[in-house]
Amino acid sequence: MKSRSSSSLFCYFHPIFDFPGFSLISPESISKILVEQLRWLTMASATKPTRIGLAGLAVMGQNLALNIAEKGFPISVYNRSTSKVDETVERAKKEGDLPLYGFHDPESFVKSIQKPRVIIMLVKAGSPVDQTIKTLSAYLEKGDCIIDGGNEWYENTERREKAMAELGLLYLGMGVSGGEEGARNGPSMMPGGSFEAFKYIEDILLKVAAQVPDSGPCVTYIGKGGSGNFVKMVHNGIEYGDMQLIAEAYDVLKSVGKLSNEELHSVFAEWNKGELLSFLIEITADIFGIKDDKGEGYLVDKVLDKTGMKGTGKWTVQQAADLSVAAPTIASSLDARFLSGLKEERVEAAKVFKAGGFGDILTGQVVDKKQLIDDVRQALYASKICSYAQGMNLIRAKSIEKGWDLKLGELARIWKGGCIIRAVFLDWIKKAYDRNPDLANLLVDPEFAKEIIERQSAWRRVVCLAINSGISTPGMSSSLAYFDTYRRGRLPANLVQAQRDYFGAHTYERVDVEGSFHTEWFKIARQLKN
Questions:
Q1: Are 125 and 153 in contact (CB under 8 A)?
Q2: Is residue 207 among the annotated active site residues?
Q3: Does the annotation mark 232 as catalytic?
Q4: pLDDT at 362 over 50
């Protein structure tokens, strides 16, 4: 279904008569064109106001709009590029004559929506969001609501919420995860900001979100301010870690175990039936089974080893540093992407070190393939626990700082379906926080602690094997280091603090006496040398 801006018949029909080849068009064709356009005009004037609007019709926007329409909510859509509007309307027709109406100008788009108006934006983060808000707010009225569904920096959301409040408008920042497929069939959604605005759209979100049996819709009101965007940001950071760990498992199995793509497909498909059951493991198995349509062999071997990124992983690591929260697995995954981008340098470095006797993979490692597969599975799972523990700790730290009162178990619940990191594993995380909402770290939950202990020997074998083979496993290695550091009651940090006091008089605390102390280390050391 379709409607267009129609301020006058002349402005709507004028392009036909202005067409240079108008005289060559047969009267019958002109008649058909006029009848069809008149039908659109009649539909536009007769159509009741829609329930909601969506601005920004790239892949995610189109699919979310179609999802909303398919769930029975009439929706108006708008895009600065009008061809995207027409494309979306055409898809709505083909996919079931869905109640989706397209508009080519912002004023008629806004006015087509029932009051109080709710408009979701899905545009690129940053200035495009501000520009879209400026365009739409010119036609909005007090009590109307704008929802940013993009991957926006949380402080921008808080700034915009305040600015909108001054205009009498409501504002939500809503993380949407699931990619193209999730947006169309049910994403995980993380709305934060005005609770009043959330109530405007709650009925729609509950139906549009992914539905998980025995768990419910994968959406909940996250909290105040920019909490929705912050949670989505950390979700993406965890996603970075997950993907890096899977890539390292692949590298060890292929480079040391010499598994073929057919074998890798079978291994990951089998893993997807157990504790590692997840969207990312599922699609990894799929990738290994896809042949190259432009040549011989498998497509994965033709993909350039250079990983892109859009910024949310970097933001996650920056926030971890700002909040003094250790997130080495997520940080190492970001570093791995940075290094992957140095493709030309890596190629040259490989030549230098090959000439010095270092091949791409160090030889001499004899492995039991079956044992290796099982060890890597266990190492991947144990590392994954550490990655999620880091992400959850970061969310909790920010929640405390901002007073958001975020419920970590509820976040795990809404990530169980629709989103990129959806996994059976998240149900166990939810249960861990249900058992103890104040859990200091997932590693010390009784169930997760037991699983880590059972897997740590295999985990160490894989990391050692990779090191001895010259294969980089920064995610698994840093996860293991995180675990080993966290589980130790005494660390060599005493020496570091002594060094700080030596050269900078930063003081130190003692294990046997309360208080802050400073020692004239340099004087004492000089006396001892004399």
A1: yes
A2: no
A3: yes
A4: yes
